[in-house]
What does this fold into?
Amino acid sequence: AQSVTQLGSHVSVSEGALVLLRCNYSSSVPPYLFWYVQYPNQGLQLLLKYTTGATLVKGINGFEAEFNKSETSFHLTKPSAHMSDAAEYFCAVTNNAGNMLTFGGGTRLMVKP
Amino acid sequence: EPEVTQTPSHQVTQMGQEVILRCVPISNHLYFYWYRQILGQKVEFLVSFYNNEISEKSEIFDDQFSVERPDGSNFTLKIRSTKLEDSAMYFCASSQGGNQPQHFGDGTRLSIL
It folds into this structure.
């Protein structure tokens, strides 16, 4: 069975600072990994995905994530935080059949002026 | 950009009543999903649907739940006899294929009184 752990339910950074949101997964098969963002009163929006190939994946809004097989991690980063990045971020992994997502508990990102 | 739409945005129902949540997936997508998010908790998988049948379901998706694609565009989730603990945000999602990114609607907030 798949599982996802997001360390830190709340992360606070200053505007312009580096954003690092941590995600570790467990999977019995090569994983497909995703990061989603949820703004207040909205659904989940796909930020980026890792399927196969290059381990560094770039997404929307300047975010990127690196798949690290040995550490079973898929941390999300952004070099410089904007106020508009304040939201909840979810890491997710698919199952073997690719027909369900298992989500982490989410990390709420706060950006201070 | 095509999107998944869900109606209603908020549903208030008395305990024990039946409720139907509606979704219109993206038109060329073949896989359909329901997830729920209880307030303050993680997003949980309920069910996936492909080729007019359930392809995967979680232990949450018991006999009180059912899904249907009544026509070529709608995808519904029915809860037969609602309980207080069914209060949650319910998200519909669709994807072009298994392991493809899932696109989410904005959700239906279900409140059981």
Notes: Chain A touches chain B at residues 32, 34, 36, 41-46, 49, 51, 90, 92, 94-95, 97-106 (CB under 8 Å). Chain A has a mean pLDDT of 93. The radius of gyration of chain A is 13 Å.
